[in-house]
Design a protein that fits this description.
heterodimer, A: about 290 residues, mainly alpha, MetI-like fold, 2 domains, B: about 270 residues, alpha/beta, Rossmann fold, about 35% helix, globular, binds adenosine-5'-triphosphate, binds magnesium ion, ATP-binding (chain B), transport (chain B), ATP binding (chain B)
């Protein structure tokens, strides 16, 4: 007795193929929609902002006159902020992921922690701002400083880095760990020489995406009380500062239309920064992939 | 009864050689549980140095479990509990103070599935020496060459040491893994079905290799292949349902086993 009726199968083949073609079209349209909207956005920003994008734009402070406005304080502030956020969040995030995946015993408690870390990634950034204001600015008395804002931003992106790193670490086949242990390697040697090299591409991709989120994030800075207009550059991590998204936010609020174009120029710079960061991620990733 | 007959060796001569050999592993009343599954029952085995000891038995009888207990790799499974004693060179490896890392630098392991690191061939072989603190490039070079020669793969890879080991065939990868194991200059080599993923020619190479290696190492090898056990081993242990049914000279096991179950198994009547 046969279970497959080949005539029936042949009769259904055509509908199956049509369905396939149809869905291909739907998915292509979905991709196209995103691309078109992005292209319009980019076009508008570039046409609006390019007039204000000049060398002076980078070397001048904010001003009442649109032509004289610049992002010197904001861009330096953002760079300083990243200098705090990147090491702090990556050390804490990758460290936590290594502990949870490699060292911690599998039990109900660690499972509970693992589940809730992903939940933390969904907490609104304003809440992290309030947390930073209460703990870092007030309780630890760090003031409205780069350090306080950097620690707040680190907490904000920590869950993303932890989850991305956990996934990258989990993807490393167990046979490789076994091979290493069987030769007398300690857990740390195995992590350093086998697990991390194999998972570093994933860890870096996740971390840099998280950092790009931190560099564009405004709400926590507003809550902490970062000033929008600053006529000096930061001179250390305890100094107060302003950041690019804050500056852009301030310009878009201004009644004069010219300032909206200045804001567009700021956005171009911010996007430039993001592209640089992502290129670094791609570069490091390729470098490691060649080796392994 | 169909028996695989090994060329007769003068038993008397062999006996005297055996007497002088000291034990590498002495297992006494070993029991092991995976949760409530009693996987190894009252195992007693005395494994001598510079011999090849084969472990045979049907699937699920505990061969892998036993061999992984010998270097305590079994401990990576959380549900495992053990009782009894395994003396490696007269020291109980289950002792609280026993350093498992040290044990594993003396007891190398080759796994069933080739598992090279996604690194260059050179870095694969140098892995063990490096983790034990050898940094000198000249010494590492020598170790790499010696180990690859030892694993009979030097000629095949000597011009491509910088290439990723994943680019090699399965049989070559397995010999890389054997070389990686030799690089730590172990005392004992544990092999869990090292040829089950290999073609007949690679299998033959590994078998010849095992014969060669026994001059300098003690080898414990799990195999499903009766001919292989008969060809390459000096002693054979027959496992069944977590127990050692018989442990004796390979010649004896394959020509004149004392237990009926052994006879049934090697003649292919079950398993
Ligand atoms: N990780 C594990 N967790 C729980 N039980 C296990 C585990 N590994 C093996 N067992 C059980 O222990 C027993 C012995 O398994 P083992 O892998 O040692 O058999 P084996 O003789 O190596 O078999 P094979 O020839 O198929 O490799 C089996 O009953 C198996 O189900
Ligand atoms: Mg097995």
């Amino acid at each position: 007795m046969k279970f497959v009726n080949h005539e029936e199968v042949a009769a259904k083949t055509k509908t199956r193929l049509t369905k396939n073609t149809l869905l291909k079209g739907v998915f292509a349209a979905a991709t196209g929609f995103g691309l078109v909207v992005l292209a319009i956005l980019l076009y508008r920003i570039v046409t609006q902002g390019s007039d204000y994008l000049s060398f002076e734009f980078f070397t001048s402070f904010a001003s009442r006159i649109p032509e004289n406005s610049g992002i010197k304080a904001a861009i330096l502030g953002s760079v300083y902020l990243m200098l705090v956020v990147a090491p702090v969040s990556m050390f804490l995030g990758v460290g936590t992921a290594i502990y949870l995946e490699e060292y911690a015993k599998r039990n109900k408690f660690t499972n509970f922690i693992k589940v809730n870390i992903s939940n933390l990634a969904g907490v609104p950034s304003v809440v992290f701002g309030l947390l930073g204001l209460t703990i870092f600015v007030r309780f630890f008395d760090l003031g409205i400083s780069i350090l306080a804002a950097g620690l707040t931003m680190s907490l904000l992106i920590l869950p993303i880095i932890i989850v991305a790193s956990q996934e990258a670490i989990r993807a490393v086949p167990n046979e490789l760990r076994e091979a290493s242990f069987a030769m007398g390697a300690t857990r740390w040697q195995t992590i350093l020489r086998v697990v991390l090299p194999a998972s570093i591409p994933g860890i870096l991709t996740g971390s840099i995406l998280a950092l790009s989120r931190a560099i564009g994030e405004t709400a926590p800075l507003v809550v902490i009380g970062i000033p929008t207009i600053l006529m000096f550059t930061p001179d250390g991590i305890m100094s107060t500062f302003t950041a690019l998204p804050m500056q852009i936010f301030d310009w878009t609020k201004r009644p004069q239309v010219e300032f909206h174009d200045v804001a567009a120029a700021g956005i171009i710079v911010l996007m430039g920064l993001l592209i640089i960061m992502n290129s670094i991620a791609v570069f490091i990733r390729n470098k490691y992939q060649k080796r392994y | 009864m169909t028996t695989i007959v090994k060329p007769e060796v003068k038993t008397a001569e062999k006996e005297t050689v055996k007497k002088n050999k000291s034990s590498v592993y002495k297992t006494e009343q070993l029991n092991l549980w995976y949760g409530s599954n009693h996987a190894l029952k009252n195992i007693d085995l005395d494994i001598k140095e510079n011999e090849v000891t084969a472990i045979i038995g049907p699937s699920g009888c505990g061969k892998s479990t036993y061999i992984k207990t010998l270097n305590r790799m079994i401990e990576t499974i959380p549900s495992v509990k053990t009782s009894g004693v395994i003396n490696y060179r007269d020291k109980n490896i289950f002792d609280k103070e026993y350093q498992v890392e040290e044990l594993r630098t003396k007891v190398g392991m080759v796994f069933q599935k080739p598992n090279p690191f996604p690194k260059s061939i050179y870095d694969n072989i140098a892995y063990g020496p490096r983790i034990h603190g050898i940094k000198n490039k000249k010494i590492l070079d020598q170790i790499v060459e010696k180990s690859l020669r030892g694993a009979a793969i030097w000629d095949e890879v000597k011009d491509r040491l910088g290439e990723n080991a994943y680019g090699l065939s399965g049989g070559q990868q397995q010999r890389i893994c054997i070389a990686r194991c030799l690089a730590i200059e172990p005392d004992v080599i544990l092999m869990d079905e090292p040829t089950s993923a290999l073609d007949p020619i690679s299998t033959l190479k590994v078998e010849e290799l095992v014969q060669d290696l026994k001059k300098d190492y003690s080898i414990i090898i799990v195999t499903h292949n009766m001919q292989q056990a008969a060809r390459i081993s000096d002693k054979t242990a027959f496992f069944l349902n977590g127990e050692v049914v018989e442990f004796d000279e390979t010649d004896k096991i394959f020509s004149n086993p004392s237990d009926e179950r052994t006879e049934d198994y090697i003649s292919g009547r079950f398993g």
